[in-house]
Write a structure and sequence with these properties.
Blueprint (H helix, E strand, L loop, with lengths): L2 E5 L3 H12 L3 E5 L3 H10 L14 E4 L10 E4 L6 H8 L8 E4 L12 H8 L4 E6 L4 H6 L3 E7 L2 H11 L4 E6 L2 H23 L4 H21 L4 H4 L2 H10 L6 H10 L10 H15 L5 H10 L5 H9 L8
Parallel strand pairs: 1-2, 1-4, 2-3, 4-5, 5-6, 7-8
Antiparallel strand pairs: 6-7
Length: 322
């Protein structure tokens, strides 16, 4: 896997391009906006990550034909735009080429997970998912980061991990595709709740309780879809939840923080804002109880005030832990 294509030159796409380049790969970074391509060519940095230089082996382009010979394709676009990206690259991706979703979410309306979106548009490709506790700025700068890379084919999963792995970017490979997808999608919704708790100044004890009970929801949901326990307690599950619920660097946490402080947030930048409703609808179909995620979805939909949501959670009947 010497030739890697990254679709999307935002912060995450730029970071992954640098990570692949540090692994010794030749990287093509595709951007939809010609101004972004020009800016990268002129300054060797993305406008979305100013001050972070791109590695020499990263070549920016606005022509999809330039990715035709890629041996692996990383889709670093928002979850709700993944279907647009897969349709755009369909003519350029060869049979059996791994196509890796690097977004964390569930498609609204269809309830499709990211690899299902890939499979629908690219039936001859090999869908995969990359997820885990990773801020774009850390990855772009080469700070130590570990993630999970899952594919149904174990040999291909291992090959992808070797293709992207370096001393500072460590992918652990897995075949539990759905488990990895669920961890990334659910933790974004729970991070909004953690941000609300912080914004309301409810205290560190409340945050710890929220994250712990939120993980219990994530685990119940994962088990209902056949996820492995080790995946849910691993990097793409518990690991990512810990990171996202603890830092304003997380767009989802920042969204919750703004909501908790009574501000008008930029919800369009947070994946969890779009995933919340799809998550609770899927949970309902599987009869999985997710009170925290349900409260977040209701707040985002305008069906419940934050104070009412907090009261509904605090007044739930006492029960055994589990």
């Amino acid at each position: 896997m010497q030739r890697i294509a990254v679709i999307g030159a935002g912060a995450w796409g730029t970071a992954l391009a640098n990570a692949a380049a540090r692994a010794g790969r030749d990287v093509t970074l595709w951007a939809r906006d010609p101004a972004t391509v020009a800016a990268i060519a002129a300054k060797r940095e993305s406008p979305r990550l100013p001050g972070v230089k791109l590695e020499p082996s990263v070549a920016a382009t606005g022509a999809l034909a330039d990715i035709a010979h890629a041996q692996a394709v990383l889709l670093a676009v928002p979850a709700q735009d993944l279907h647009i990206a897969t349709n755009a690259v369909s003519a350029q991706v060869g049979r059996g080429v791994p196509v890796v979703a690097c977004a964390k979410g569930i498609e609204r309306g269809t309830h499709r997970f990211m690899t299902e979106v890939i499979a629908a548009a690219l039936p001859d490709a090999l869908p995969a998912i990359l997820s885990g506790p990773s801020f774009a700025i850390d990855v772009a700068r080469g700070l130590p980061t570990a993630v999970t890379l899952a594919c149904a084919d174990e040999l291909q999963a291992a090959a992808l991990a070797r293709g992207l792995g370096s001393p500072t970017f460590r992918p652990y490979h897995s075949t539990d595709v759905r488990g990895v997808e669920i961890g990334g999608a659910a933790k974004n919704v729970l991070a909004i709740a953690a941000g609300i708790v912080q914004g309301r100044k409810l205290g560190a004890s409340a945050t710890a309780a929220l994250v712990t009970r939120g993980f219990a929801e994530l685990a119940r949901f994962g088990r209902a879809f056949g996820a492995r326990g080790g995946t849910l307690t691993g990097l793409s599950g518990l690991g990512d939840l810990i990171l996202t619920c603890a830092s304003p660097q997380s767009r989802n946490f920042s969204l919750g923080l703004a909501l908790g402080q009574g501000e008008e947030p930029q919800a369009k930048l947070a994946e969890g804002a779009f995933t919340a409703r799809a998550l609770v609808e899927l949970a309902s179909e599987k009869q999985v109880e997710m009170p925290i995620a349900t409260a977040v979805a209701a707040v985002l939909d305008g069906a419940l005030s934050i104070d009412a949501a907090i009261e509904s959670l605090l007044t739930r009947p006492l029960r055994s832990e589990g």
